Amino acid sequence: MTVPSTPPASIGLVTGLAADASPGESLAPWTSLRVGGPAELLVRPRTVEALVSVLSRARAEGLPVHVLGGGANTLVGDLGIRGITLKLPPDLFAEEVQPLASGGGMVTLGAGAAIVRLTNVMRARGWVGAEFLAGIPGTIGGAVAMNAGTKNGECERVLDAVELATREGIGWVPRSALRLRYRFTELPPGAIVTRARFRLLDGDVAASREAMEADLGYRKRTQPLSQPNCGSVFTNPPGDHAGRLIDSVGLKGARLGSAQISTLHANWIVNLGGARAADVLGLIERAQARVREATGVVLVPEVKRVGAFA
């Protein structure tokens, strides 16, 4: 059973608020994998006050709330997402750049801003420190929530503080009060990242740019960036690589429907055109089963499953 196209219990939630609401809107175009069903109600608040009001009203009505960032590392079920799906616009907050007397500076960006905006500001100001984020798709909010990064570093390295919205209001939380680990940030229950502040440093700008260009070149050669994908499907197990393990059991290039384990990198799944979330999930489960059977290693998904699956 799919999400109803006209949710009378939800549409009134945004009445009188500075927010755009779309009942039954397909979420596939909003994800990097281009799969997934509709949102019962997709809400795009135009002000911070509207965002807090939506959270408060959703709580009063007992409606679940899911935040959709840039749609990377996200697998939306074919039956869609019930309740409220929040999409924060990139311009909900003004960008702030503050040079520090001690050198370097602070960059504050809204959760809906693209990750690339941070590296662009860094380059323009001649600062260093966030090179490892170059080329990672998605939004600032998603980068914070996932502690995004590569083998060269993670978001926590440059994160200074996070602004969180809850049903009670909005406020800043210092990095020291958050628990971050590999590909995960533990946020208070129901909290939504609205802004993040990053501390960048003075340093060797030429070396910084060289590192970013080298990393981007490597990603283009080894990852299927030209095809719809959700990024790395599994976290790397200690001392090994998920892609190597999946390749070792003969699943590189395996297909289910129009979803395929990439022939370029076995820890990526691509949409060849018209894939369903069920196809992608089937490949994820097949890879987990085959690798566990052959090696005893349990692959842990990095991609987040949201919504209802058939």
Structure report:
The protein has helices at 8-11, 48-61, 116-125, 140-146, 205-222, 242-248, 277-295; strands at residues 19-23, 39-45, 65-67, 74-76, 81-86, 96-99, 105-110, 127-128, 149-150, 153-154, 159-166, 169-174, 179-181, 184-186, 192-202, 229-232, 255-256, 259-261, 268-271, 304-306. The chain is α+β, with helices and mostly antiparallel strands. The protein folds into three domains: 8-86, Uridine Diphospho-n-acetylenolpyruvylglucosamine Reductase, domain 2, CATH 3.30.43.10; 96-208, 2-Layer Sandwich (Uridine Diphospho-n-acetylenolpyruvylglucosamine Reductase, domain 3); 226-306, UDP-N-acetylenolpyruvoylglucosamine reductase, C-terminal domain (Uridine Diphospho-n-acetylenolpyruvylglucosamine Reductase, domain 1). Strands 6, 7, 8, 11, 12 and 15 form a six-stranded antiparallel β-sheet that branches. A four-stranded mixed β-sheet has the order 1-2-5-3, covered by helices on one side. A four-stranded antiparallel β-sheet has the order 16-19-18-17. The longest helix is centred in the C-terminal third of the chain and has 19 residues, at 277-295. The radius of gyration is 20 Å and the shape is globular. The protein starts with 7 loop residues before the first helix and ends with a strand. Mean pLDDT is 92; it is low at 3-9.
